Amino acid sequence: MSQLDNPSQWTTGADAPTSKQKAFISTLASSKNASVDPDSLNKSEASAKINELKNAPTQNADATAGQPIQDPDTWSTGDDKATGKQMGYVAVMAKKAGEDVPKEMGKTEASKKIEELKEKTGM
User: Fold this and answer.
1) What are the distances in angstroms from CA 24 to CA 15, 67, 85, 102, 120?
2) Can you give the pTM of this predicted structure?
């Protein structure tokens, strides 16, 4: 087992969680109907909580997508094909907004479309 597999042994494990960890925990907790205060965790605990939430069954299928963690225009993988989760959000919200569902999008384009559709649909 490598050190990466054991967050409690990380040199920075006792530090405050990163903003990305906190945002991801909040999004996961919402979809799992879990109450988690990311600010009460350290990096190591946040990593463990993320793994726990990722493996928990989804309780709230209607959870809204959170804000992008970074500006999508700065993503190094922004031109890559959108993830299945992104395309799922776009499909659900596009249908609700009465728009055609795009067949393919890049990650950056999908993120921007999600934000646009969230405004239109209130999701």
Assistant:
1) 17, 10, 14, 26, 24
2) 0.48
